[in-house]
Amino acid sequence: MSGVNIQQLSIRFGSNEVIKGLDLQVHEGEFLVLLGPSGCGKSTLLHAIAGLIDVSGGRIEIGGQDMTEAEPSARGIGMVFQSYALYPTMSVERNLSFGPRVSGVPKDEIARRVQRAAQMLHLEPLLDRKPAQLSGGQRQRVAIGRAIVREAGVFLFDEPLSNLDAKLRAELRRELKLLHRQLGNTMIYVTHDQVEAMTLASRIVVMKAGVIQQIGTPTEVYERPANLFVAGFLGAPSINLVPAKVTLAGGTAQLDGALPVQLPAAGLSDGQSVVLGIRPEHVNLLDDGAYSGVVELVEPMGNHQVVWLQCGGQTLAVLVHDGRHVAAGATLRFGVQVGQLSVFDQASEQRIDLA
């Protein structure tokens, strides 16, 4: 088991700087997820840790050793790709054992490792099959098993579930989380899927344009987003963002806009333009609610509904769990859980911490 320490990492492709002076400490044994939209640099960062691309500056330490210029084979990592990358002419057993065989590991030790990985990943009945005889989920299990058999200190996952259907993704998410609990190895996982990030991670690193926007537990980045980008990227439906103007009066601040609210004045300035962030689950339909809106759309989701309201020129998403019938065009009253609001400065887009 090894930690990873990245200091002032920079990566350029020609004149394009993809990673910009990035610092990141990955603790031993944690499941760290790199989350962000396509093109934000998360896969580039993972490939730099693996040694698959050259860095322009900075330092990468794995297990306390400087691995910035080391060959991938010397880094003590196991990599799992999106595309499985299995040898098509080899059986599952031969695919699993390929790395240790090339490294000269004794046969009995290879057999022990393969048996252990096969048991963990439910591959025992498939050891004699070729990749073409496997489903997508089974192939990805073999790819994961190959990393386990290497007994790497750090596992790197590059969007390994993105080629699978929704049901298989959910199944393999559970298996990966259980696998991490069993092995205890350091795992770094790249995804643009917030559900994967929230369910798998001990900590999430949210990235945008090669820069880390926030690092925290899933609860921290969801409930206390550091800026408007993080707030909008996590959550389905997305967070409601409502512009407002601050008027100070004594120790309170009146925020006037589509959803007028009163908040503590600390951290706010008179006349300041802000944005209120309200998660859909913190908007409640109430007969005596302080606000009213017209139903624009209702999306049935099985155990709940997403109700879209028009209020003061703003479209708001509301999660409704009580099974009530809601019709498009109806006028509904609602309230918001003021204690759950996030407030962002409109100019800087950064979170404002209210006392």
Automatic annotation (TrEMBL):
UniProtKB keywords: ATP-binding, Cell membrane, Membrane, Nucleotide-binding, Transport
Keyword Transferase listed: no
Keyword Transport belongs to the record: yes
ABC transporter domain location: 4-234
InterPro entries linked: AAA+_ATPase (IPR003593), ABC_transporter-like_ATP-bd (IPR003439), ABC_transporter-like_CS (IPR017871), ABC_transpr_MalK-like (IPR015855), ABC_transpr_MalK/UgpC-like (IPR047641), Mo/tungstate-bd_C_term_dom (IPR008995), NA-bd_OB-fold (IPR012340), P-loop_NTPase (IPR027417)
SUPFAM superfamilies xref list: MOP-like (SSF50331), P-loop containing nucleoside triphosphate hydrolases (SSF52540)
Domain of life: Bacteria
Molecular function terms from GO: ATP binding
PANTHER family reported in the protein's UniProt record: MALTODEXTRIN IMPORT ATP-BINDING PROTEIN MSMX (PTHR43875), MALTOSE_MALTODEXTRIN IMPORT ATP-BINDING PROTEIN MALK (PTHR43875:SF3)
Protein name: Sn-glycerol-3-phosphate ABC transporter ATP-binding protein UgpC
Lineage: Bacteria, Pseudomonadati, Pseudomonadota, Betaproteobacteria, Burkholderiales
